[in-house]
Amino acid sequence: MTDSSRLADSPDPAPEAGGLVLDLRGVVKRYREGDAMREVLKGADLGMERGLVGALVGRSGAGKSTLLNLVSGIDAPDAGTVVVDGVSLGALSERDRTLFRRRHVGFVFQFYNLVPTLTVAENVRFLLDLDGAPDAEARAQALLEEVELADRGDAFPDRLSGGEQQRVAIARALAHDPGLVLADEPTGDLDARTGARILDLLERLTRERGRSLLMVTHDDSILDRVDAVYRLADGHVTREAGGRA
After folding, report:
1. N or C: where does the chain have the smaller number of CB atoms within 10 Å of the terminal CB?
2. DSSP string of the chain?
């Protein structure tokens, strides 16, 4: 069975026991800059086990966001393979990649990316509503309780602090129960104390449910709480032990 038919036949394929949630091999990605082509990833390999909490680090412009876009299926590599939860994204159509991302990958962004015209509860259940989930309201409320915002469901994002908005963003990322969560500088717009609380929450909600979490960060303190560090430099990824290893 092809990955495409697998996705169509089973919108929520069960992850294989153990094994890798991310398996990138020989990944190449180029972008045009004026008249020249810039090769950002030059045959990058990355393997990440299920249930792992990892950090992706590298200098600005090294290609961290590019790698996240490939892992999430937003973009496609020029060469190599990207396999997420046993599904080869290169075998999927653009539509199926979108469906896969919507159902199996959660995102937490530095600047929250909440929809300002939706209430907190509506933001959390946004993807569930898109998929017509009958229990969307109940699932959103349960997550708001977990992030200690049960009484703010009717508020709009501009009435919340930065830390509260990021907690809403975490609840939204987990609403569809993804196996993989990608966080791009999740504490980058927060003060140190609030950022530490957000990391505690994100790590707890990830580990409790056996999810996998990959965080892009420039914050060295985060490296002490992850299982593995993936360092991106010169178009290649090397793996190092994290502080919890």
Report:
1. N
2. --HHHHHHH-SSPPPPSSSEEEEEEEEEEEEEETTEEEEEEEEEEEEEETT-EEEEE--TTSSHHHHHHHHTTSS--SEEEEEETTEEGGGS-HHHHHHHHHHHEEEEETT----TTS-HHHHHTHHHHHTT-TTHHHHHHHHHHHTT-GGGTTS-GGGS-HHHHHHHHHHHHHTT--SEEEEESTTTTS-HHHHHHHHHHHHHHHHHTT-EEEEE-S-GGGGGG-SEEEEEETTEEEEEE-TT-
